[in-house]
Design goal:
- This protein is of the alpha+beta class and about 70 residues long.
- It has one domain (about 1-70).
- Helices cover about 25% and strands about 35% of the residues.
- The protein is built from 1 helix and 5 strands.
- The chain is elongated, with a radius of gyration of 16 Å.
- Residues about 20-25 have low confidence and may be disordered.
Amino acid sequence: MILRYDTKNNIGSAKKVVGKTDYYVGVSKICARCGKAIVGYPALSRKDNKTEICSNCGTLEALEELMKYKEQK
């Protein structure tokens, strides 16, 4: 498998080679928070409501907000 990351445009791609035939496994973006490939639909960061992040980081940001809210009470 060949992986390529375009950091300028925040796009990663993967190509799997099978014999003489090449086919694309998928094209994904890179999470701005953890740096890993975003699989599936991206989440929006709660920090600026524009930055695309992976699902796991989106969940972590939501839990961090919940913890801040609970500490205020």
